[in-house]
Amino acid sequence: MNLILLGPPGSGKGTQAIRLQEADGLVQLSTGEMLRAAVASGSETGRLVGSIMEAGELVPDDIIVSMIDRRIDEPDCAGGFILDGFPRTLAQAEALDEMLARKARRLDAVIEIAVDDGALVERIAGRFSCAVCGAGYHRRFQPAAVEGVCDRCGATRFLQRPDDNEETVRTRLVAYHAQTEPLLPYYRARGILRSVDGMAGIDAVSTEIRAALGVSAA
Ligand code: ADP
Ligand code: ADP
Ligand code: ZN
């Protein structure tokens, strides 16, 4: 199964992608994660995109498209993938269609995670992750079982993304509404769009996604 998770920054795409990955053997492809890895490695791409990401603007389509084009060909994607954070513009969506046709693969579903703008600032301002294993948390909505200790790996160091501040979130929301939201009618017209209520709790959203996909509970 090949899926897209579509929703504004902080809507829960990463949180839900990890759950689908663990339960269903699908591979999460997060363009944000790939770009952050490129920035950390100091590669040419990383040097190009760092300041754009820090400002909360979108990285040029050609960089993103060639990154995904190569990644989908890797063997771990053969059993299916979950696109998290891609496509984010109509040009990216068209490039995805073209590349999937070329690879004789198809999109099974696009899941929209709908969340009100008002909730997103708190979601993003409270987001942090384990510095060692990358597990995602939220100060209020998804705290570690023992404060200061990662549930998954026991590490005690955590990170907050430099772009997860209130000012940048507003720029990212503007980019979402202007450039990414037009993908909703694009996929609706194809009959593959499913919308879930992302304002619900994390478990309830997972249940709704599984129902929308017609897969049984994890
Ligand atoms: P995205 O990948 O769409 O940017 P994340 O999955 O990183 O979003 O979620 C943003 C933050 O909100 C994280 O800190 C996460 O723990 C929290 N979160 C995710 N889903 C929910 C939810 N349904 N209710 C409350 N908080 C959530
Ligand atoms: P979030 O889900 O919180 O918005 P991501 O981790 O998906 O964050 O993306 C972080 C940043 O990486 C974005 O603000 C943007 O600068 C860049 N980025 C990620 N994916 C794309 C994409 N498909 N197109 C353009 N820029 C992207
Ligand atoms: Zn950890």
Explain how this protein is built:
The protein has 218 residues and is α/β, with parallel strands linked by helices. It has helices at 13-24, 31-41, 44-55, 61-72, 90-102, 117-125, 166-180, 183-188, 202-213, and strands at residues 3-6, 27-30, 81-84, 109-114, 127-130, 136-138, 158-159, 193-197. Strands 2-3-1-4-8 form a five-stranded parallel sheet, sandwiched between helices. Helix 2 (31-41) crosses helix 3, helix 4 (61-72) runs parallel beside helix 5 and helix 6 (117-125) packs across helix 7 (166-180). It starts with a strand and ends in a 5-residue tail after the last helix. The structure holds adenosine-5'-diphosphate (2 copies) and zinc ion (ZN). The site of one adenosine-5'-diphosphate has 20 residues, from helix 1, strand 6 and helix 9.
The computed structural class is alpha/beta
Largest sheet geometry: 5 strands, parallel
Note the total helix count: 9
Q: Spans with pLDDT under 50 lasting ≥5 residues?
A: none
Helix content: 40-55%
Q: What Rg is obtained from the alpha carbons, in whole angstroms?
A: 17 Å
N-to-C CA distance: 16 Å
Assign an overall shape.
Answer: globular
- Strand percentage lies at 5-15%
The unique ligands bound to this protein are: adenosine-5'-diphosphate, zinc ion
Count all strands and give the number.
8
Strand neighbour order, sheet with most strands: 2-3-1-4-8
- The overall pLDDT, averaged over residues, is 96
Order of helices and strands: EHEHHHEHEHEEEHHEH
